[in-house]
Task: inverse folding
């Protein structure tokens, strides 16, 4: 495969920004995007342009085409996202006699806020490899054929396309189980990278051949010393192996990459690597010997893999893609009614004194999950908890609830799924903890849409040493904004009623909750209620002023309680700034941007608008 290095690509792209900024403003981008594939690092894409739609031609590729060249054949489009500036190697190989080429184009945003191909930067011809430095942003790769003679289809055919990325890793964390495949992957690592795991082999030529197979690298960050077990389940090829590598920092730029091999799976088929890992960064490489490739499941099991939960908490999570730490055997004291060998999540619940506690598990997807309460036993010598006796299981087809008088101590609350007909129940959920000794007892919390907005009512049975409520609203049930503050007006002996009218509700789903604050600063969260609202006219569009500015942009059109997310890109699509702004009229500091034409994209989840402005 011929190879060409574009050492000045970064300079080329930077210089093109000024050249094409005005043309991108006055002229529309190339043809709109109908169909495309997302292109990911180190993945080989095997495809053909035969019978593909002819979306682009030589006019769309501009200066990347010379006089007399005609590209009137079917083409395939790929979208490639660069999050950090780096050098990439684009590899292209035609696998038949077709006259195919790859055009690399920049990105622009059209009037609807959609990404579109724009200016062509360079092209790859037939079979070649090109190293290029790219700035952050979106790029488009079009595989197209040149029509060199008469008759249709001469420029259509089969090919292989890949982008090789440096320091590209997928993330793996405790309790996670991922599925993957090394089929059609680039081979970044070989036996020399694993040499320290083959100490019995003294001659490098005798090392196994791992250079002819694709591989996948996973990055792991260990935050506390822990016993960890990695398990590789081969699904179709026993020749796919697992290696554990340490971290090697790059002194020149501060980046890190896999270093020496610390361990390897030795058995064919399913493999394990066990050990105690200090705090640091590590890598798991899945690779094949003698060209072996295949699909697999990879899991990471850590000791003390749990979160903490307290009275008044409401947490959201998901058991999808989780390993199974516990099963029916661990719940034997509760006489379990199912096979609980599905992925699970555990929470440590610590109680300072005797209290009546209610745990409520509400699935938020199409799944049937179980709720388990068990003792947490502390080992004083290691200061680590282990699972003790099971105290209760709730496993119905709906909401799960456990109500129990508990002594002071430590407990595990486990969200688990059963296995039915070889299918594990898994999915998202909400878990709520209520304790009887809280300063307030909330009897009800409701909302009703009206012509004026959404009316919210709540009633407390008693209030002891209580300061007040923050009424909070969200557009997704995850990210919350304070909407209103209500001071306490109740007493230990009587009920108290509260009402608030949200006069500016969101169009569509509105999520509300109460964040109660005690006099000692303790905070507790209520259940979430969802109210849909369609009684208002559509909100105004986003707008900004001034559109010529050196320091600040003023944003108008925000709604109370909704967070606005923004991105600023150059005319070539490079992302230069992103973040969020709050409610109502807001200002955005752009003094740190370079001078020139910019595009500001604003969205609040329901509305999206891209607005051009010029930075002076």
Result:
């Amino acid at each position: 495969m011929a190879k060409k290095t574009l050492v000045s690509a970064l300079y080329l792209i930077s210089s093109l920004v000024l050249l094409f900024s005005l043309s991108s403003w006055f002229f529309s981008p190339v043809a709109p995007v109908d169909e495309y594939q997302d292109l990911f690092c180190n993945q080989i894409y095997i495809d053909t342009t035969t019978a593909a739609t002819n979306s682009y031609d030589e006019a769309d590729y501009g200066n990347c085409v010379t006089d007399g060249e005609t590209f009137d054949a079917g083409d395939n489009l790929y979208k490639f996202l660069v999050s950090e500036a780096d050098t990439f190697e684009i590899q292209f190989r035609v696998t038949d006699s077709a006259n195919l080429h790859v055009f690399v184009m920049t990105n622009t945003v059209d009037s609807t806020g959609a990404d579109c191909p724009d200016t062509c930067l360079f092209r790859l011809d037939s079979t070649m490899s090109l190293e290029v430095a790219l700035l952050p942003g979106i790029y488009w790769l079009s595989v197209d054929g040149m029509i060199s003679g008469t008759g249709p289809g001469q420029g259509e055919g089969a090919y292989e396309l890949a982008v090789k990325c440096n320091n590209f890793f997928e993330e793996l964390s405790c309790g996670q189980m991922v599925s993957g495949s090394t089929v059609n992957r680039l081979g970044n690592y070989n036996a020399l990278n694993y040499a320290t795991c083959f100490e019995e082999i003294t001659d490098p030529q005798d090392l196994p051949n791992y250079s002819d197979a694709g591989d996948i690298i996973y990055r792991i960050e260990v935050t506390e010393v822990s016993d960890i077990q990695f398990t590789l389940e081969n699904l179709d090829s026993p020749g796919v192996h697992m290696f554990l590598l340490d971290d090697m920092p790059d002194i020149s730029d501060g980046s890190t990459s896999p270093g020496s091999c610390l361990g390897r799976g030795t058995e064919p088929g399913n493999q394990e690597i066990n050990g105690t890992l200090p705090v640091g960064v590590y890598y798991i490489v899945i690779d094949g010997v003698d060209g072996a490739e295949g699909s697999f499941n990879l899991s990471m099991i850590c000791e003390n893999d749990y979160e903490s939960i307290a009275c008044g908490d409401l947490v959201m999570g998901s058991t999808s893609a989780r390993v199974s730490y516990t099963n029916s055997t661990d719940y034997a004291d509760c006489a379990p009614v199912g096979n609980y060998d599905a992925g699970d999540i555990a929470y440590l619940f610590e109680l300072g004194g005797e209290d009546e506690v209610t745990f409520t598990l509400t699935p938020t997807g199409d799944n049937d999950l179980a709720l388990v309460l068990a003792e947490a036993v502390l080992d004083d010598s290691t200061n680590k908890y282990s699972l003790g006796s099971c105290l209760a299981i709730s496993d119905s087809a709906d909401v799960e609830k456990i109500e129990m008088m508990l002594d002071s101590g430590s407990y595990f609350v486990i969200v688990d799924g059963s296995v039915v007909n070889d299918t594990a129940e898994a999915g998202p959920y909400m878990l709520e903890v209520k304790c009887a000794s809280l300063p307030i007892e909330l009897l009800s919390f409701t909302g009703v849409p009206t012509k004026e907005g959404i009316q919210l009512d709540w009633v407390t049975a008693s209030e002891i040493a209580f300061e007040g409520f923050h009424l909070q609203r969200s557009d997704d049930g995850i990210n919350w904004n304070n909407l209103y503050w209500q001071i306490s007006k109740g007493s230990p002996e009587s009920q108290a009623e509260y009402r608030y009218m949200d006069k500016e509700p969101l169009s569509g789903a509105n999520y509300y909750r109460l964040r109660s604050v005690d006099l000692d600063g303790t905070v507790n969260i209520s259940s979430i209620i969802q109210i849909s609202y369609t009684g208002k006219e559509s909100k105004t569009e986003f707008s900004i002023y001034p559109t010529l500015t050196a320091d600040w942009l003023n944003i108008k059109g925000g709604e109370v309680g909704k967070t606005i997310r923004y991105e600023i890109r150059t005319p070539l699509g490079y992302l230069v700034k992103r973040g969020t702004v709050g409610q109502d009229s807001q200002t955005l500091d752009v003094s740190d941007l370079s001078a020139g034409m910019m595009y500001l994209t604003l969205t609040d989840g329901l509305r999206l608008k891209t607005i051009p402005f010029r930075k002076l």
Remarks:
- Confidence is low (pLDDT under 50) at residues 1-29.
- The longest strand covers residues 115-125.
